Every structure is written in C-alpha cells, then in structure tokens.
Amino acid sequence: MAPTDWLWWPLLLLLRLTLLLTSCFVSESVSTTSFPKDLEPLNVVNSEQSYQYPGFQGLLQDNDTLRLGLDFQRMLRINHMLYIAARDHVFAVNLTTASEEFVPQLKLTWKSTDVSKCTVRGKNSDECYNYVKVLVPRNDETLFACGTNAFNPTCRNYKMTSLELVGEEVVGQARCPFESSQSNVGLFAGGDFYSATMTDFLASDAVIYRSLGEGRPVLRTVKYDSKWLRGIYFSFAFVVFSRVARVCKNDNGGSPRVLDRYWTSFLKARLNCSVPGDSFFYFDVLQSLTNVLQINQRPAVIGVFTTQANSIPGSAVCAFYMDDIEKVFNGKFKEQRTSDSSWTPVPDESVPRPR
Ligand SMILES: *[C@@H]1O[C@H](CO)[C@@H](O)[C@H](O)[C@H]1NC(C)=O
Ligand SMILES: *[C@@H]1O[C@H](CO)[C@@H](O)[C@H](O)[C@H]1NC(C)=O
Ligand SMILES: *[C@@H]1O[C@H](CO)[C@@H](O)[C@H](O)[C@H]1NC(C)=O
Predict the structure, then answer these.
(1) pLDDT at 35
(2) Structure pTM?
(3) Separation of CA 59 and ligand 1 centre (Å)
(4) Any domain includes 226
C-alpha cells in the first residue's frame, strides 16, 4: 500500500482507554523524575504590543457577539485568502491587504432556523446557534461547511470566491458534531468526505465515517465498541490517551457476514510523548497538531500535549516523523481481550488478515 492510499487522524480526545494504573503510578514516577524546565522563549510579545498589529474584532454591533464573542471554530488558508469559521458566520480575509487592515473581504451569515425546537430540548441555550465546525475545500472552487445548527447538524457547499450557496443542504450527522465543544476532524480525499466526530445528540457514539463519494460505499467504525473508539462521555475514571488512527482510502468495507459497511483497515496507535527518567512521565492528552511539515527534510507532525486531568499539570511539544508512525502501524499488533483489560501483543500467527 502506498503512503498516499491511507489517511490518518489524531483523535483529539475522542478516544479513551481504561487503565488500571492511575494517579498513584503517576505521582511515583514524578517523585523520581526531574521534571524538565520550560525553555526560554526567543521573543515575547505582550498584550499591549499586540495591539500594534491589525486585528479583527468581529461584528461589534451584533448582540450575540457582544455576549458570546466570535467563537472561532476553524481557520482555513487557500492561497491568499484566510477563511474563518465562527458562530453563525464565515469570514474571508484577503491576506494581501490584511497587513494594514484586517477586515473580511467576504462575510457569510448562516443562522439556525429552528431555535425554538432547540431550547425545548433542554440543553444550554448558548448552543442554539450554528457553530461552523467543518470548513474544508471540496474541490478547486467549492468549500464544504457544516454547522451544529442548534443540535441539528447540517452541511452546505459554498463558492470559494464569493461565499455563495451552491446546491442543496445535506444532513450533517456523522460529519459534524451536535455541540460546539466537541472535537471533530473532516477532509475530502479522492472525492470522499472523511469525518471523525460524535454522531448523536448525547455524544455517546464516536465515529470515523466516509461518505459523499461516488462509487465507494459509506463506511463507519463499529458502534459503541470501545475497541475501536471510546466515547468522550465516559467519566473521569477512564484515562485519555492520544492516538492516531489510520484507514485505507481503497477500503470497500467487509462482507455481509463480517464488518458489513464497516472499515476493514482501521488501525490505531498511541502517540508516545514522554520524558525519560527512572520511569517515563507521559504527556498523553493531545491538544493540537500541525499539518504534515518537513523536519530534517522528512515529513513530520508537531503536537502540543498535556497531562491527564488527574496528573501533575504539564505540557510538552513533541514531533513525530510520518515514517515512524507508519512503522508503528506495521509493527506489533496488539489486542484487548476484554473491554477493560490492557492491550497486549498478539503472536505473529494470530494477527488477523487484513490487520
Ligand atoms: C440588541 O440589544 C439592545 C439592547 O438590549 C436592543 O435594544 C436591540 O434591539 C438588540 N438588537 C437586536 C438586533 O436584537
Ligand atoms: C486580494 O486583494 C488584492 C489587492 O486588493 C486583489 O488584487 C486580489 O484580487 C484580492 N484577492 C481575492 C482572492 O479577492
Ligand atoms: C515511550 O517511548 C520511550 C522512549 O522511546 C520508551 O522507552 C517507552 O517504552 C515508550 N512507552 C510506551 C508505552 O510505548
């Protein structure tokens, strides 16, 4: 399989795994490990100095913005345009002129229509807006956007140059979360839309989903199966690990007997961001990740990690070479015998095919 045949994601807090070693393990490792000191920054810009730079305050006359702020959700740069997805709006800033005046050249307003139904559902009424959580290029001319739309996720296509609506709305479920606070990822590859998100109102069903393509079947991860993905709504008794997951683009799903309409190529691996010592101190919660960039002329990603909520607060920046990540996906295959046991390596002869 060529590297371009697969896709992978950091699963931002989407995954949790039971771990029997909890805080006692962590505090022991800390008492014997000297915690690394923060590096000295090369340059610091304080808040007063930052006012010298052009800024965008948003819609100052808008009552919702005054109360809730702009609620930026996504940024997307295409050539000299910067698209900013926020609550009820998408802004497009022309970067050629932004160094003097940071004012959107285009503004799209997309509000939820069914706010009354939303307030009845009994959730926080600040969620009865349209938080635009997906904003990705669909092709050279079209942007694909999805919003929470007051707990009724919906997707639309817009013309890149004018932010004009193109075609019909489509259902956003499994493509966009129901709430602004939930993490999600989405991208187009080979005409298919791949998304990782919660698929339901209660945020109990996490999914990696492929849809909207022509010819390829719609595929998803197995529902409510913690071996695949473990939902974020589980309590703090579970420990969060940062993971990357990989699926193959040419995956057509299983047969009617096994994994019908499910991925057959789904694999996940742990991102190990740790500090050595007598025992390792782990930064296991992935907060953010760059796109693939070059480090030492090798494709790599850089992530910001923090510690578990029940651990000593700390953060770290770790970089991973893509070929190392690929090696892990081809390395030792582990399994979990029951849903709360630890993951252990499988003897070579028992590795399932396809993995
Ligand atoms: C914004 O709030 C002011 C003061 O509460 C009110 O008079 C005005 O009608 C509101 N504007 C809109 C568009 O709701
Ligand atoms: C951005 O602004 C420059 C200078 O005004 C203009 O020439 C260019 O066409 C604009 N780009 C887009 C994509 O509108
Ligand atoms: C994390 O990486 C370190 C350094 O390579 C290694 O010694 C340690 O065993 C790794 N931890 C896990 C859980 O794989």
Answers:
(1) 64
(2) 0.81
(3) 14
(4) no
User: How many domains, in total, are found in the chain?
Assistant: 1
pLDDT at residue 178 is higher than 80: yes
The residue range of the domain holding 172 is 57-189
Q: Is residue 177 part of a domain?
A: yes
* Beta strand 298-306 pairing with 315-321: antiparallel
- The residue to mutate among 271, 273, 280, having the most atoms of ligand 3 within 8 angstroms of its beta carbon, is 280
Closest ligand to 101 CA? 2
* Residue 233 pLDDT exceeds 80: no
Closest CA to 7 of 179, 263, 259: 263
pLDDT grade, residue 165 (50/70/90)? very high
Does residue 171 fall inside a structural domain? yes
Task: Give yes or no for a cis peptide into 299 (omega within 30° of 0).
Answer: no
How many angstroms does the Cα of residue 181 sit away from the middle of ligand 1?
27
CA angle at residue 328 from 307 to 347, to 5 degrees?
A: 110
The reply to whether 151 falls in a domain is yes
Q: Is 337 helix (H, G, I), strand (E, B) or coil?
A: coil
Q: What is the full DSSP assignment across 276-332?
A: -SSS-EE--EEEEE---EEETTEEEEEEEEE--TTS---EEEEEEEHHHHHHHHHS-
